[in-house]
Amino acid sequence: MKSWSISKNVFRRIRRDPRTLILVVLTPLFFILLYGISFSSTPKGLKLIVVNQDTGQASIRTEQVGRVNVPLNLGKKLIENLDHDVFTIVVRDDPDEARREVEMGEAWGALLLPPYFSNFLVSEALRRSGPREIDYNGQTINALPPLPPVNENNPPQPPTLILDNSNPVIAAGVYPAISKAFTGLIYEDESTLIDSSLMAIQPVYEKPITALDYTAPGVIGFAITLISIMLTSISIVRERTSGTLTRLLIAPVRAWEVSVGYMLAFLLIALFQAAELLLTSFYLFGIRFNGNPIWVFLIILIFSIGLQGVATLISTLAKNEFQAMQFILVILIPSIMLSGVFWPVETMPSSIQPIAWLNPLTHANAALRNVMLRGWDLSRIIPELSVLIGFAILMLILSIQSMKRQADTV
Amino acid sequence: MEKSVEAEGLSKKFNGFTVLDEMNLSVEQGQLYALIGPSGSGKTTFLRILCGFIRPDAGNIQVLGWRIPNFRVQSQLGYMPQETALYPDLTIMQNLEFFGELYDLPHDQVRERAEALLQLVQLENFKNQSIAALSGGMKRRVSLVVSMIHKPRLIVLDEPTVGIDPRLRVALWQYFRELTQQNISLLVTTHHMDEATRCHKIGLLSQGKLIAEGAPDELLKESGADSFDEAFTALEDRAKEVPA
Ligand SMILES: Nc1ncnc2c1ncn2[C@@H]1O[C@H](COP(=O)(O)OP(=O)(O)OP(=O)(O)O)[C@@H](O)[C@H]1O
Ligand SMILES: [Mg+2]
Predict the structure, then answer these.
(1) Residue with the nearest Cα to atom 25 of ligand 1?
(2) A62-84: per-residue pLDDT in tens?
(3) Is A410 an interface residue toward B (CB < 8 Å)?
(4) Distance, CA of B197 to CA of A206 (rounded, Å)
(5) Least CB-CB distance to B85: which of A246, A252, A409?
(6) Which CATH number fits the domain A46-203, given the four candidates 3.40.600, 2.30.30, 3.40.1710, 3.30.310?
(7) B84, B86, B102 ranked by CB distance to A248: nearest
């Protein structure tokens, strides 16, 4: 049976190529380790703004001594109860300012505690539990539920959560984490008396954002990454293995002209593919698209310049198409795992979050989401665009350098 | 007379293995120079150094009066690599047009030159055929045409006559000789001594050393052999006897 010889020859050739051998052994491990390390369901370090206007006083009706004022400071307690791993808490004074910050995407939520927060919570608790014994100045007295409000049109203000719901995974994490802080706020034993149902939630985006909406921008970004890098690097490797690169470089053509020439061609292809992806996902799957498509194309254009650079670098490092494919895998796996496309960077262990922030796809994804889901315009995606422009310039320089080096080694 | 190629003391090692050993070689303007040597003697390595693709470990090389690598040399240099180096999916004409553009040649001038050169290599009827559909020898001929499309002042050809039938081979060498009348210099490598009769000068390369150099009849006389094929062996044997 000749198949046996053919199989054996495959192994013989893999053994002759140490790079392939390493990749064959390590790629699956790399893949699953990265997945295991980066995936985690609970978000961490979410920026939450707290505006605490609570005076801390609760006015309680009692059977024995009439109305008493008790300094409960429930607002302060609630903030202390918040899980400081999950939230990075920022204190602000002005509720309008806090709301603006959430709308600008600078924080995932703002918890507004109104002036009579302590009073409000205690009243609600007593209304639900009925009369209860409390400790007042060393004596046990009976607290009574509040009387119905005098003015029905002006009920006491509940605490408010302004929630950036553009990221369903994070939004789904913020709410229960705040709910938990309500537990044991008044009575340590009775956790159900007071809960977050007392909280008024104001989502920033009216229409609920589905998991499909949420992942679509990142998947589009990833598709562009995958296709661009593959097409460009394989084309350049073929240019070299076929010997035509020798001819380009012996002609009066500068290394940068070769790099830029390739880049121009594949940029056009990438933009065409972006249009294809966007139109299909919009018209076939109805994904949310609030923003201006021009910004989407601008993001993809700048991002693609960087990707072309990466592809040129790969093509210089790889001796042939096969090696190029392996480099692509090693670059693409972490790029998708550590990009926030499927699970937010905020849910990754803090030790690898910095790596995710170094990943250009993270920023491309964030910029695309800001435009497509939040409907933001150019001025509000400048931070992400700046990172992408930096990436593009760096990669452009490196790719031209590597093309010059290629001239020495063809 | 001005020199088109001037190499002095060129040495190159690959992984500790000496490929070029203090090689000296010069090609004068308007000269047709044949670099002859057995497989592995270092011919291609020398040409790649000449083109600036690899740097020598030691020695100097000047091309058209410039120390390479030099960008100005590139527009006046035509190089035919040993491998085919064409875009297989494009037609002959498309390949020629593309490379012509890289030398800033106007389109109609490229076409005109392409037609003439294709006629020379007997491919005028195949100009719209894709490279992938050509035979090995036909590809070599297209490759030759590509390296001359921009009227270079120095043409460097790495075994241009491999896979080409004897009649066309003779015609090509005849053409190379004619080019020198326009003050064009050519450096051509080959395995075959008999091809070299039309050259101004022959250099014999053996194990990275230029063991003999001279006009064809001079070399023939010096070797004392009857034919060019025997001459190489005789000169190579003599070089081995006298340690350098
Ligand atoms: N990139 C390289 N790495 C290692 N060794 C090399 C490399 N290029 C050439 N060599 C070695 O240099 C020697 C000379 O090679 P070169 O290609 O110059 O020979 P050549 O005279 O052109 O042979 P041929 O007539 O077969 O084309 C050979 O022994 C070859 O193994
Ligand atoms: Mg050779």
Answers:
(1) B39
(2) 888 888 888 888 899 999 999 99
(3) yes
(4) 88
(5) A246
(6) 3.40.1710
(7) B102
Closest residue CA from atom 7 of ligand 1: B14
Q: How far is A34 from chain B (nearest CA, A)?
A: 39
A28 residue type, one letter: P
Beta-bridge mates of residue B105: none
Separation between Cα atoms, residue B170 and residue B233, nearest integer Å: 23
Asked which of A136-145, A340-349, B79-88 is least confident by mean pLDDT, the reply is A136-145
User: How far is it, in rounded angstroms, from Cα A174 to Cα A342?
Assistant: 17
Cβ A247–B53 below 8 Å, yes or no?
Answer: no
pLDDT tens by residue, A373-382: 989 999 999 9
pLDDT at B123: 95
Which residues of chain A are within 8 Å of residue B54 when distances are taken between CB atoms? 408-409
Whether the pLDDT of residue A10 is over 60: the answer is yes
pLDDT of A151:
60
For the domain covering B3-84+152-241, report its CATH number: 3.40.50.300
Interface contact flag, A250 B79, Cβ < 8 Å: yes
The number of residues in chain A equals 410
Predicted structure pTM score: 0.82
- Which tens digits make up the pLDDT trace of A269-324? 999 999 999 999 999 998 988 899 999 999 999 999 999 999 999 998 888 888 88
Nearest CA to ligand 1 atom 24: B39
Q: Which two tokens stand for residue A27?
A: 């790629």
Strand order in the sheet with A57-62: A66-71, A57-62, A139-144, A132-136
B39 lines ligand 1 (CB under 6 A): yes
**Dihedrals φ, ψ of A304, to 5°?**
-65, -35
> Cβ separation of B102 and A408 shorter than 8 Å?
no
Which pLDDT belongs to residue A68? 86
Chain B positions with Cβ closer than 8 Å to A: 51-55, 71, 74-75, 77, 79, 81, 83-88, 99, 102-104, 146
- The mean predicted confidence, pLDDT, of chain B is 91
Contact between residue A93 and residue A33 where contact means Cβ atoms under 8 Å apart: no
The interface predicted TM-score of the complex, written ipTM, equals 0.88
**What is the torsion angle, in degrees rounded to the nearest 10, for the CA atoms of residue B151, residue B153, residue B155 and residue B156?**
-140
- Sequence ranges of the domains in chain A: 46-203, 210-409
Answer whether the bond into residue A168 is a cis peptide, omega within 30°: no
Q: What is the mean pLDDT of chain A?
A: 87
